[in-house]
Amino acid sequence: MFHVLLCSTFLRGILSQDPIGDLNCTYVSEGQPKFSHKATNCANRFDENYCISLFGDPVEVDSAEDRSELCYKNGFLETSEDVKHLASETCPATCGYCCITRAFSCSNAKSPRVSCDIVTPLMCVDPFWKPILIEDCPNICGFCELGCFDRAHFCARDVSICWHPDMIEFAKENCRRTCNYCTFTGDCGPDHPYCVHWVRNNFCINPFYTTQQKRTYCPRSCKLC
Predict the structure, then answer these.
(1) What pLDDT, in 10s, does the model give residues 79-134?
(2) Where is the signal peptide (predicted)?
């Protein structure tokens, strides 16, 4: 009788858990979503206790219990992108939204030196592995702010975006790896592929072209960096 009562109590505890309503930063195990380590692998901008007072109890890694509704629902108990954005900007670790912050907003390397699938949280902070993972598995460890990465996935499809006057600011922010903006200082971007030919035809010293045009298309070849 005691065994039956104990099992009944245990099952009621499981069934009373609210399933995860917002699947961001989760993985599926035994047919149900659970929070991954990427849900909490970042720092809150506010003090932990203050975040809890705003959004409720913090999520737990590997838990199938839903995050607090205060993290993603408004006063009418409706899912709200504005509330979710506020939570991810201020208390992402508490609400389990680390994976949608800028620290996780890039792709892993196409040919990593170690399979990103086997990277653990301990490897992310290990002095030996960290420099490698910054380059190869930034999306796993939340290192997208530390290295040189494309935030947009289509940058390499059309590299003209790197020097097109209307797209330069976008490229600086979203196509840093493709456009080599990580290796240049200030506003000095990459050279147009045809610069080698234009320079031979005196592009850099031709008064017909403005300094801004030279800086836009051939900053390094024209020594304007």
Answers:
(1) 999 999 999 999 999 999 999 998 888 888 888 889 999 999 899 888 889 888 98
(2) 1-16
37-53: b (≥16 Cβ within 10 Å) or e: bbbbbbebeeeeeebbe
**Domain ranges, ordered by start, for the chain:** 7-103, 110-141, 148-187, 191-225
Q: CA 173, CA 63: separation in Å to the nearest integer?
A: 35
8 A C-beta contact, residue 40 and residue 59: yes
Encoded amino acid at 81, one letter: E
> Computed over its alpha carbons, how large is the radius of gyration of the chain?
24
Q: What length is written for the chain?
A: 225
Joined together, the tokens standing for residue 134 give: 């910054």
Amino acid at 177: R
Residue 150 phi/psi, 5° resolution?
-90, 125
Give the torsion through C-alpha atoms of 21, 22, 24, 26, to 10 deg. 0
pLDDT in tens, 52-67: 999 999 999 999 999 9
List the beta bridge partners of residue 33: 28
For the whole model, what pTM was predicted? 0.57
